[in-house]
Design a protein that fits this description.
CATH superfamily of the largest domain: Spore Coat Polysaccharide Biosynthesis Protein SpsA, Chain A
CATH architecture of the largest domain: Alpha-Beta Complex
Distance between the termini: 42 Å
Number of domains: 2
Largest sheet: 7 strands, mixed
Strand content: 15-25%
Strand order of the largest sheet: 3-2-1-4-8-6-9
Number of strands: 12
Length: 359
């Protein structure tokens, strides 16, 4: 039995390493697009709840953009701080705010915010961003739109961002999951929708295709709206392609380890499965692969470190974070248990609002 487990673990670890390597190779080899000439009008759409500390950084970086035809629309989702005042302070011909109303039944807050923003948008292209993002150069938005215009037909783009902030022992798992778990290197040839997903921090789609498929209505009750949105659009024939935006867009995810823990706690249980039983089962598989396997044989520390090293290099994490990879995996198990328990008790909250998938 022990031998069987060792072989099974070895095969799965090898698959993760090969997929991470293929993604890294595909990611780094992509050529920069040629100048596409005139760019379409782009609407940058940002849902915000209690984001008074993050929005000034994002708005100032947008104002510096040299894209010739861009608008920024921000949705204040009933914030309990000065988010709306910040939006009003920066309002201009290119920047406007939408004051949120009571959350409709059956909708999750961020999903509703994104949908309300789409109604207000006038661009030919929609760029959905989180409120804690920041454009890193005046040409960032132009560069992103040029790559978008150069994409393969029947695809849309989602971004691998530069991750900043605190709690990187946990945050580094964003890139780890994206790069080891999804076969981006297959590009538009990804065969199954469950292999797809979107990084909700940054994704771009044409207004025409958005309004044709209305993805936020489809995933209105999903806490993990970005993953479900990517899978839904894949089923519609529109394939998500991962774009390297690390030089163009940073995400200041969390200001402390505690905030990072609370932020991931709201999502992990939903990521693991639709019920407490499914979540515990998936967490057990994760624990077997990355905790039990190295206990069974110390050689399994090699693939553990290898896959984390690959994904950490792509996402520009420090070598210190990679060195403490076993600690990250242990934290992930504890975080998963915390998330499952908190969800089962109905106590998951984020920014003053209870979080639960609507029925």
């Amino acid at each position: 039995m022990e031998r069987t487990f060792i072989w099974a673990f070895a095969v799965i670890h090898a698959a993760l390493i090969l997929n991470a390597l293929a993604n890294a190779w595909w990611f780094w080899k992509k050529p920069q697009p040629a100048n596409v000439g005139s760019l379409p009008r782009v609407s940058v759409l940002v849902p915000a709840r209690n984001e008074e500390s993050n929005l000034p950084r994002l708005i100032r970086s947008f104002r510096a953009q040299n894209h010739p035809d861009a608008e920024l629309i921000l949705y204040d989702d009933l914030s309990e701080d000065n988010t709306w005042e910040v939006i009003q302070q920066f309002s201009s011909s290119r920047i406007k705010g939408v004051e949120g109303e009571q959350l409709p039944p059956g909708w999750v807050g961020k999903v509703n915010g994104c949908y309300q923003l789409s109604i207000q948008a006038s661009g030919e292209v929609f760029l959905f961003l989180d409120a804690d993002t920041e454009f890193l150069s005046p040409s960032a938005l132009r560069n992103m739109c040029m790559r978008f215009e150069s994409r393969t037909p029947s695809t849309f783009l989602t971004g691998m961002t530069l991750l900043k902030g605190k709690g990187h022992l946990i945050v580094s798992f964003v890139g780890n999951f994206i790069l080891s778990g999804i076969p981006w290197w297959l590009a538009e040839k990804v065969p199954f929708s469950f292999m797809s997903g979107v990084n909700g921090q940054c994704w771009m789609i044409t207004a025409k295709e958005y309004r044709e498929f209305e993805p936020h209505i489809e995933v209105k009750s999903e806490v993990l709206e970005d993953v479900m949105l990517g899978r839904y659009l894949h089923r519609c024939g529109l394939i998500p392609i991962l774009d390297d935006v690390r030089s163009d867009l940073a995400v200041h995810m969390y200001s402390s380890f505690g905030e990072a823990w609370r932020g991931f706690r709201k999502n992990v249980a939903f990521m693991l499965g639709g019920s407490a039983f499914t979540s515990l089962l998936m967490l057990s598989v994760f624990g077997a692969l990355f905790i039990y396997a190295p206990i069974l044989s110390l050689w399994f520390l090699v693939p553990l470190y290898l896959v984390k090293s690959i994904t950490d290099r792509v996402t520009k994490q420090s070598w210190l974070i990679t060195l403490f990879s076993p600690v990250s995996y242990v934290l992930a198990i504890v975080l998963g248990l915390d998330s499952i328990l908190t969800r089962s008790l109905g106590r998951i909250q984020w920014k003053g609002r209870s979080i639960e998938k609507s029925k």
